[in-house]
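Let's do one together. I've listed all components of the complex below, 835 residues spread over two lines.
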Amino acid sequence: MAAVLPLSPNSPAVQRLLLSGNEAVARGVWEAGTRVAAAYPGTPATEILETLSRFPDLHAEWSVNEKVSMEVALGASMTGARAFCAMKHVGLNVASDCLMTMTITGAYGGLVIAVADDVGMSSSQNEQDSRFWGRFAHIPVLEPADSQEAYEMAKQAFVMSETYETPVLLRLTTRICHVKGLVTVGEREAHEPAGFVKNPQRWVMVPAHAKVRIPGLFKRDETLREVSETTPLNILEAGTDRSVGFVTSGPAYMHVKEAFPDAPVLKLGLSHPWPPNKLRELAAMCDKLVVVEETEKILETEIKAAGIDCHGKDILPSLGELSPQVLTPAIDRLLGKPVPPPAPAAAPPKLFPRPPTLCASCPHMGMYYTLSQIKNLIISGDIGCYTLGAGHPWNALDTTICMGATMGVALGMDKGRGSVDKNKRILAVIGDSTFMHMGMQGLLDITYNHGNVTVLLLDNHTTGMTGGQATPASGKDIHGRDAPKVDLFKIVEALGVPNERIKVVDPYELPTLFKTVREEIKIEGPSVIIARRPCVLIDEFKPTRPYLVEEDKCTGCGNCVEVGCPAIHVTRRDRVVKPSGKEVELAFVEIDSQACTGCGLCVQPCAPDAIQHVSRRDIPIHIVKTTSSS
Amino acid sequence: MSSDITNILVCGIGGQGVMTATEILAEAAIAQGHDVKKTEVAGMAQRGGVVTSHLRFGRKVLSPQIEPGTVQVLLGFEGAEALRWSHYLRPDGLALVNTARLVPPVVELGLFEYPDDPTGKMREAGHKVVAFDAMSIARDLGEIRLGNTVMLGAIADYLPFAPDVLMACIDKRFARKGEKVVEANRQAFAAGRDAVAKQLAATPA
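Okay, and this is what the predicted structure of the assembly comes out as:
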């Protein structure tokens, strides 16, 4: 569907577009003349690279992980090109090894890292405050408050990077990335790389060279602190109601302005290093000072350390998003004003939860249904759609930590277990994209160290959870062009798994899957089952005729419900007492033929053979394909 | 400052077209010269989870988030989801709700119950609700995918600008798909307007 306001790089010079923060960053990066942009998909940052891949005259790529994406950006910067990488907050943990040394080499061509904190954890395993990296790595942190600023700061970040020879961190949050607002955009500027200059003292980071350069980091900090006092990125708004003044950054600024339009505010666009003189000026003009920051107590701690009295996390939460609704009562309480109790109608109604679930025909359902039917397993999990296997009805995932952790965790469990766990079978579940991101090394550790782990490699040919981005195993690049398709079987074999212990199965064929898992978990030593089927969100998936339940044949056994398909609905429940005296709950079902895409997983456990194909003439196949939101 | 701001909350579940519908509403507001912010709230939406779109427009929009008790119009793509967010309505707010009943696996498994009459519950809580079956309206027009345009038609008369502004945005979106598609969407839009108007006429407020 064509957008009314297209994000076209060839559009006239000045125009206003409705852009998400992610699209705005992409636009700014492109206009800055950037030559190289790299990322691994991750919510809420994914759309930055997706957008950049549609612009001309720059190399955009899905890298195999965030560390590689940062190294690619650094390499480009070394040639004098403007370079960019984007990642979610946990991605920067992965990339941090590169970051902590690249801050010493510094940038040559402008080098900007966009990091998106999933404040509120819409789709992440933790909530981190990436502003800490600015302190740790001695690099400046820019924090936009809306799409317009995201666009402008993306451009300014390159200039700052080149002026002070530093990587620059553009810190975003979910409420920047996924909010659309109007942005006045411009044109792409030319930026020709100055060329790589051999300079071992700068680019070869051995102790002797690092020792010479590290004092420069502290000096850079001081220089940037002076910049922070005068930059238009940091604005002191005098206000008229001086009872409370606010120090704030990022989207929290908008909440402060919404809730307290008349208060003095120091808005920090360059939030690290922040300007002490400007801050003292604000403190002097108001009775109380409140630091409003998402998420941790960073500015507040530093401001207090500078000897300035302030409030912050003593009255505001350190977890989740702030909003006018959070700020107003907290400030009222601070000022000793009465806080009215919320009106009864304002309370959210009590209702069932609607957790995210696997799609109809998702190949992971076959695997999790199988695992849910086998006892005595410990199943180590990982990050992806298949993390949903921990939920109902499968309850077939026992751990999730971080990208690729499944292998090491499983091996550790194998080596650490005592007699109480000795009869249990240890499995490690991982998807193809996560396997290539950080899982391969873990598998190598399993084979190298004689681990007894059965690995389930769920190969759906894509990065599913973030909306279906290409991977090296899908044979496509970010533009959808053909790319070398890596052979997962060969990789697994090369990592030391014996050829006869690598099984490739179709997760839609439950009997084979069940038999293979049962066989492989009995084997002492590593084995890998590659379950191969395309994700339903990608073009490679071909829906087939939907199924329906023959009402008179359904006995209410409920076996199909245990598959966990969202297209199966219970029409009637009943209870019967079996001849054995056992009471059994029955669930009679129907299949939503609009949602069913004909994978046939539910047909296989159906005891009375009540699930049949719909005649193609009866009901037109209609697929609702959703686009990425994560 | 916030007094001139219009708050619209669109809710449903992943895959229903909530985000696209809100995008078109945003385009209409922009066409009227408003400042606009639109934000989606939490949840891995494309996995059958909850999806809500906050749309705020006016002279100058600051925070993108709508606060509970401040929504002028709630456009619900699903009954229970409309109920879930009904506390966002302000006392004189209006809920326009598609009666679709999308039951999640946790309910099918018998772990939770789906309310019998979500819109009835909203009325009990004192909200003004217009409920209609957008999907059967679309089916009667011969194409279930017109459901989203029916929904947009439903809200068209309760915006601070003329329905034609919204219709023009829908026309634009479907223009390249040909006159037939544009015409079908016009019919769906009119049917959505009609469905709400008839009900409001039948139940004097």
